[in-house]
TrEMBL record:
Keywords from the UniProt entry: Iron, Iron-sulfur, Metal-binding, S-adenosyl-L-methionine
Name assigned to this protein: Radical SAM protein
Pfam families per UniProt: Radical_SAM (PF04055)
Nucleotidyltransferase as UniProt keyword: no
Signal sequence, renumbered to the chain: none
CDD domains: Radical_SAM (cd01335)
Example GO molecular function: metal ion binding
Keyword Cell division applies: no
Length: 305
């Protein structure tokens, strides 16, 4: 676990994510991501829209954190990624939230966009475990991570639920302002796999330990998606689980990106699935119809916070 003094040091010169902004978040300033010293979250509730081995029949105890260091132009959760929704809470309150979600029957504690709060989360997990928390911890991330920061989570996180969005620098630069995305995502994923090891499931098929890599197919980006899946399979084979997603939903205000105004076609998605199967992917999840809907975006109304 990260000691309190270490937490303060990390926030005084914040280099937690690849933006490396070096802001002193303890002095009232905010990093490139928008986050300050205190945790800000917009929802803590049972969530049923993750992969089956995460959501199960009781739901994943999901905490949606405010702000994000990646800022994708097509973000469906922009109300929280831009920090418009949510309220600030203490580390002690975050620990209480974990325990409350466990009491509600959650299969796990699911931390959504947690990178900029790694020190506070580690402290909250330690507190909650001392009070009896037994659930697996899920780190649900964009994949734009530093391996050094992920290394701080040894003994804290059980399951990594990470995106791998791009291989192409042009696409990651245009859509996420991060032409270096793949470079960082590769190193971070290596650390995640080394930590989590081989996937472990309980008797009900719920993941207790392991790595799931998500990839969202964007309209017109099938070639890059194939490159992502090829890299993952050539590097990790079926040691990881693959979640290939077709739920891209056009968002308003993207006039500068006319190519993103449409949804992914069935033909594009089927081509990606066929490509993955032909490579030899066996441990995988796919989506079927009705996922590209704004109704799948939960309300960020501070429930459970």
């Amino acid at each position: 676990m990260i000691a309190r003094v270490k937490m303060d040091e990390l926030l005084k010169n914040c280099m937690l994510c690849p933006r490396n902004c070096g802001i002193d978040r303890t002095g009232g300033r905010r990093g490139v991501c928008g986050a300050g010293e205190h945790v800000k979250a917009a929802r803590a509730a049972l969530h049923f829209w993750e992969e089956p081995c995460i959501s199960g029949d009781r739901g994943s105890g999901t905490v949606f954190f405010s702000y994000c260091g990646l800022q994708c132009v097509y973000c469906q959760n922009r109300a929280i990624s831009r920090g418009q929704a949510g309220k600030e809470i203490s580390t002690e309150r975050l620990a209480e939230i974990f325990l409350e979600l466990e009491h509600k029957g959650a299969h796990n504690i699911n931390l959504v966009t947690p990178t900029h709060y790694i020190p506070q989360i580690a402290a909250a997990v330690e507190q909650a475990k001392k009070q009896g928390l037994l659930l697996p911890m899920v780190y649900n991330t964009s994949g734009y991570e530093k391996a050094e920061s992920i290394a701080l989570l040894r003994g804290v996180i059980d399951i990594y639920l990470t995106d791998f969005k791009y291989m192409d620098e042009g696409l990651s630069g245009r859509y996420s302002g991060a032409p270096d995305y793949a470079k960082w995502a590769k190193k971070a994923l290596k650390e995640m796999v080394e930590q989590a090891g081989e996937a472990v499931f309980d008797g009900d098929g719920m993941m207790q330990k392991g790595v799931i890599v998500r990839h969202l197919l964007l309209p017109g980006c099938l070639s890059d998606s194939k490159n992502v899946v090829r890299y993952l399979f050539e590097t990790y084979g079926n040691r990881i689980f693959y979640s290939l997603m077709n739920q891209y939903t056009p968002v308003s205000g993207n006039d500068a990106y006319p190519e993103l105004r449409r949804r992914v076609t069935d033909e594009e998605y089927e081509a990606l699935i066929d490509f993955a199967v032909d490579l030899g992917v066996e441990n995988g999840f796919m989506q079927q119809g009705g996922t590209a809907e704004e109704s799948f975006i939960p309300p960020f109304d501070n429930e459970g916070i």
